[in-house]
Amino acid sequence: MRIIQRQQKKNKLLDLCVVGLGNPGNKYDRTRHNAGYDFLDRILDIKSLSLENSKKIDAQYAEISIGGLSIGFVKPNEFINLSGKTMSLLKKYKVKSTEDILVLHDDMDLEPGEVKLKIGGGHAGHNGLRDILNNVGDNFVRLRFGIGHPSDKKQTNAWVTKKPTPAEKRGLSVAFEKCESCLDDLLMKKWLIVMNKLHSNEH
User: Residue 188 carries which DSSP code?
Assistant: First the structure.
């Protein structure tokens, strides 16, 4: 008698997973390090989505279908320097490859108002990215929001966990608006089109 193996029911994998990096809790709300969280919030507002806690990936999570693509939005529950844990869980449960993950994060190498899309690369001293690279490698897409840097490198930790100045805040708003103007291309994974739009209208 032929034994028919029951196929294991598998969750449908996402076409894209958008992860906003930041530190949870009111203490860190709207600080420089939370630029990724903040832009994720703006996307959720635009798409009228709200996050719910997902124990499976230890994160706040929402899902939507746009143009035939299934897209997940993720805000890790862990602190930013431990972002690799969430990325490992996403790789395990939500995506076929880390190439399908877009990470939104702050970047001290860029000035407020600057924003760049990048595929792969190192961590450039960003401890959240360092933890991700240690856990899942570098094969993911990043949207980098400039926050500038302190004059003294020793002040870096204090700098990233403080709120931006009014001028920096305006710069971040400009960067967010640039990304919103090509949001659909971003969510449809049209990376080259987004790069051309973001990198060509720099002043």
Answer: T
